[in-house]
Amino acid sequence: MSRVLDMTGQRFGRLVALRLDESCQSGLRRWMCKCDCGIEKSVCGGSLRDGKSMSCGCLLRDVARARGRASRTHGMSHSSTYRVWKSMVARCTNPRHVHFSNYGGRGIRICERWRHSFAAFLEDMGPRPDGLTIDRFPDNNGNYEPGNCRWASLVEQANNRRGNSLVIYQGESMTVSMLARRSLLPVHVVKYRLKVGWPVDRAASEPVRPRKATLQQEAR
After folding, report:
1. Is the bond preceding residue 138 a cis peptide, omega within 30 degrees?
2. Most buried pick, 16, 136, 138, 219, via CB within 10 A?
3. Whole-angstrom Cα distance, residue 36 to residue 48?
C-alpha cells in the first residue's frame, strides 16, 4: 500500500484540506475540505492537486453571476434616457440616419466615453428629466461631450439653434425671441424694429401703438 500524501492544512483555491476522509469506500483517497464560504466537502485528492476542484461549488456560481452581471445591460434599454443616447449616436455616426447631414455630416462628434458606453453617458448626464432632451450648450456647434451638454426644454433648445441672431440686452446675451418674451412684445414687432435699425433698448421698451392711433398719426 502506497504512503498517503499528507495534505492537511494545504490550500487549494478556496478549499483547505482538513483530514483524510476515512468514510470513503470508493478506493480513491478523498479529503474532507472546508471551503472559504464555510461548507465542508469531501473531495478527491487528485482533483485537489490537479486544480480541478477549487471550491465547494460556490466559485462556479460566483463566476456565473459575475459573467451575468457583465453581460446584462444597464437595465434601462426601454428608458427615454437610453433612447436619447441611442439616437444621439446614430445621427452622429450612421450616414443613413435621416438627420446625419445636420450632425455627423457637418462634423458633430461624440466623445469616446459616451460613444461606446451608455453607462458613462448616464453617469455624466443623469436620467433624462420629463419634458427635456439633450442640448449642446454652450456651443451648439460643438461635440456631444461632458461640459457641452445639458438637459433642456424645447424653448431652450430653440433659443440655442445655430443661425439664431443674438443681441445684448441689459448686459445679457439672448436671442430675439427671448428678448420679445422678456419685453412682453410680439416677436415680429421686435424683429422689425431691429431690422430697421432701432437700438436694442428702444426695440424692447417702447410699447406697440394701437393701429388706429398709428394711422391717425400718419394722417397728420
Report:
1. yes
2. 136
3. 15
d(CA 13, CA 62): 14
- Give the CA-trace dihedral at 75, 79, 81, 85, to 10 degrees: 80
User: Helix crossing, 187-195 with 176-183: angle to 10°?
Assistant: 120
193 contacts: CB under 8 Å, gap ≥ 6: 202, 203, 206
Bridge pairing between strands 40-44 and 133-136: unpaired
Q: Is residue 59 packed enough to be buried (19+ CB in 10 Å), middle (13-18) or exposed (0-12)?
A: middle
Contacts 24+ apart (CB under 8 A), 132-139: 133/84, 133/157, 134/84, 134/88, 135/160, 136/108, 136/160
